[in-house]
Structure formats: structure tokens, C-alpha cells
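Suppose you are handed only these lines of text.
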Amino acid sequence: MSTPSSPAALPPGAVLGIVGGGQLGRMSAVAAAQLGYRTHILTDEPEGPAAQVAHAVTIGAYDDPDALRRFATAVDVVTFEFENISADGLELLASLRPVRPSGHILRISQDRVAEKRFLTEAGIPVAPWREVSTPQDLSVARTDLGLPFILKTTRLGYDGKGQSRIRRDEDMQPAFDTLVPHPLVAEGMVDFACEISVMVARGLDGIAVTFDVTENRHRNGILDLSLAPARVPETIRDDARKIALRIADALDLVGLLGVEMFVDRDGQVLVNEIAPRPHNSGHWTMDACPVDQFAMHVRAVTGLPLPPAARHSDAAMKNLVGPDDMALWPAILATPGLLPHHYGKTEARPGRKMGHVNVLFPAGALPGEFGVDAALGPLAEGYGQQDDPTD
Ligand SMILES: Nc1ncnc2c1ncn2[C@@H]1O[C@H](COP(=O)(O)OP(=O)(O)O)[C@@H](O)[C@H]1O
Ligand SMILES: [Mg+2]
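From them, the structure of the protein bound to magnesium ion can be written out as follows.
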């Protein structure tokens, strides 16, 4: 039986294997089901967000060869929502099943030095950076980059964890001692006008599509709000999409990749980091696009054709973090226009991403800051009110 696309496309009923059991796996599994696929999750969390909606689950550590083998032999293709699997683990998976995106891409994205080296060699603009293995390297970085700069661990950083701002010389040694393991990476502080991101998907046939550029705001190192389309000039949006496409081609990507970028005060786009998987800043696509980032991800890794990454509405996405935002869940549900997505996590620890809410606006009608805030109803920050000294 031929499939609607290339001969390599998986037929309905095939099993998509996802390494990692969090919300990105959950939303990928739902998208896979819509395309007729089953999903098998490898996770160390039996009741986690992805396991709750999957056809099958292998419970095990990501570096346990037995678990990896059982998982791989039960699926038709392997993809990831958790990137930090060991090199050995990757090799084992790749010896058993197609792994998409391929291991070399994961190895680059797992390691900030490898990532910056790859981007620099590919001619992609990044903030100035130095590898820091010793106190001597640190003082070289201090001289070359100037103050302030940022010191980051090369591995396992997320939501702003594993990094430290160096504002004064006295900050250097404590940060160097606290951030482990070494080597670290030192990055020049970008005085950015805004942060943006681009989701790019690339299929088995090498054809790539990019979603519209997203504008991102962080709070306490965690993504708080995404706006689409980003409120930056057309030329900057074009640059950002071209950069994402160049990265996807240079990596020979099969799958989905999120590219985080800074727009500096001169309007130059600098790449911050890449993530070869669905990305938090692409969650607005779930309600504002006919084919969202998760469907695009599933299509890319199962060998289906990629439709245009079209957008029918403007959108804002607000993350629901920790217990405070989840206390508003009933109010969110009761507010027309808020489109809630719950990750099924039971424990609402502070700083933990529990869900998100999308709000749509007619295409071309994304309002300004106050309008977006007002549309968020119970999640509104109340700009202007919080600084009122009479409060
Ligand atoms: N070189 C930099 N200059 C200015 N801000 C930065 C720089 N690096 C990181 N940041 C800020 O810290 C946030 C988190 O850093 P990032 O490298 O993306 O790590 P994470 O893996 O935690 O997302 C960024 O989104 C940005 O707001
Ligand atoms: Mg980041």
C-alpha cells in the first residue's frame, strides 16, 4: 500500500517512540494520535504528562541499556522531548531504529560549547563567547568580553538554571566555584531590544518550513509570555526565519527545531540557543495554526509531507507556572476567549510549568501590551496598577 507521501512515510498504526515523559511528549502524542499513529513513551515517571496519553510506556532510566532496548524494539521511529540522553544511549537507539532528529544534532544541542562552535562555524551570528575550564580562562574571558557577562554550565541548563550574571570582578570566583561541572561557557551580555524565536521543521525530503517569528518575555528565567507575530520590523523577521532555515540545513535536520534569538539594539539577530524538539515558545501554534508545531514535529519524524506553517490568527501564549497560576485554573476555565492547556502534573511546585493558556486575535490585530494583558483576564498583570504607591 502506498502512503500519501514518500515511500519512507510511516503508515497509520505505526508507533512513534518518544524519549521523555513531559508536556512536550504529551502534546506530541496527542498530535500523533490525530494522524493515526500510536505513541510509546520512554520515561522514568510512570504517571507523567506524556505517559497519561500514550498507547504504551517503558519505565526506565534514560541511560539503562535494557530499558532503551525494550523501548526501541517496540517502536518504528524514535524522537525526543528530553534531549539529555547519553551518547551511549543515543548510539544504542540508533543501532536499533531510525532516530530523528539524528544523534549528532542532540549532541550539539546538549553542550553549549559544541552548540556555539557549530553556530560560529556555520557563520550564524552569536554573542561573543569563550570556553572556561580554568580560572585563567575566566580572566581571559573577563578581559575579552568585558563586564557584565554571563557564565553558564555547558550541559543540563534550563529555565535560566545553571547560569550566573557576572557584574563585578568579585562575582567571578564564586560563580566559577558554584557552577559545575566544568568547563563552563562565558558569554558577552547582549543588551537586547527583545527576544524572539523561530520554530523550523524539516522533512525527510529536505524541505523545510518555518512558523512565524515569536516574541518572548521571560520572568525569573522562565518563559512567561509569547506573542505571535513578533512586533519587530519585517526585515528582522526575515532575517530570523532565514537563520533558522540555515541552521536546519546545516544540521541536515529531520524533525523540529526551536531557535532562540536576541534582537540587539542595532536590529541584528543573534542566536542564543537551539533545541531540536517542540519548544515552549511555539505553543501558540496549537490554537493559531491549522497545523501546529506538534503536528509538524510528528509529520517530520514520520516522513509525512510538511504543509505550509500557516497562521490564521495572531496569538498570545501565557505559561501557567507553579501553584500561584494554577490557583487561577477555575477562573481561567470560566473566562471566554482563554484557551487552556493542562499538562496533567499533580504537583505544582514553584517554578514548575503546569500548563499554558492561548488567546487569539484576528490576524493583524495583535494589540499592544495593555490589550494583551487585558485579554488574559484573570492572568492579567494589571500593568500600571502594581506600582501604584497608594495600594
Ligand atoms: N548572553 C546573554 N545576554 C543577555 N541575556 C541572556 C544571555 N544569555 C541568556 N540570557 C537570558 O537568560 C535567558 C535564559 O538563558 P538561556 O541561555 O536561553 O538558557 P536556558 O537553557 O535556561 O533557556 C535567556 O532567554 C535570556 O533572557
Ligand atoms: Mg533558553
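What can we learn from it? Residues 386-391 have pLDDT under 50 and may be disordered. The longest strand covers residues 192-202.
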